[in-house]
Amino acid sequence: MLTRIDHVMICVPDLNEGIAAYQRIGFSVFPGGSHAGRATHNAIAFHEDDYLELLSLRDGECDHWAAVEPGSSDARLAEYLSRGGGFRYVAVQSDNLAADVAAMRRRGVDVGDATEGARRTPSGQELRWQAAGLGAKNPLPIFFIQHMTPRDERRRQVARAGDHPNGALRLDRVYIAVADLGPAVEVYSRVLGVPAPKIQRGAVIKADMAVFDLGPTGLTVAQPAEPGPAAEALARRGPGPFQVLYRTSSMDAATRWMASHGVPPPARGVRNTGEQAILVGPDHACGAYIGLVGPA
Hints:
Layout: E1 2-11, H1 15-25, E2 30-35, E3 40-46, E4 51-57, H2 73-82, E5 86-94, H3 97-106, E6 115-120, E7 126-133, E8 142-147, H4 151-155, E9 168-177, H5 181-192, E10 199-202, E11 207-214, E12 217-224, H6 229-237, E13 240-248, H7 251-260, E14 267-270, E15 276-280, E16 289-293
Parallel strand pairs: 1-4, 5-8, 9-12, 13-16
Antiparallel strand pairs: 1-5, 2-3, 2-6, 3-4, 6-7, 7-8, 9-13, 10-11, 11-12, 14-15, 15-16
């Protein structure tokens, strides 16, 4: 079954610059190594059970497209990065990917077979997984992953897993902007295999939204209702993921860290749950909105 949001993928033209940007926001980000059979490398910020991935083409690949096989996933990434990059995909975790792919196909979902993936970390550790992506009939910005390497081993790939200056504990929600909420909810409901949730108003993102609960995490589909982050993201980049919300142990500690590292004071708002949240804008988070919610 689909158990939770596993990680978010933020694509950056320059990996070192992406690492520096997220370190200024207060994440402990470390180089993750290169992917087997790909022209990509990444960096990882691990939380309790999920992680943030910064992904880029290896040095020089963005400037030398001839080195990337035409029509490949790396070529599509190069084209995406040429437009500035940003929050590109949400990875949903499965505990039995072959069974989930079969169940999706029974629901009429266009989804590919589970394929093997691997990455070697700078320390030489090999991490393995299986992944499946959606086909052309269901072009949603999500894919599915089942890790073959146990979580505790994966956490050892970074020096300080879960120890972030901004107090980030875990991913709470991701937000995906859409132009028409009703049809989008129907598609996501069929793909994820869960009932369509009720529509509610997102007070911080200024949008009508539907939250699909996946274990302790929420995948939110949002249609702008007034000027705000969702409307800005939809106008700037079109439909797609635009915000990640993290639980933090201290919003004040996060704000102090950012202020001491040159990040302007994040916007503050009150969620429809009554909780206060802070929001770092895309200019300082490589094209994504990064929210933090928790105690002062």
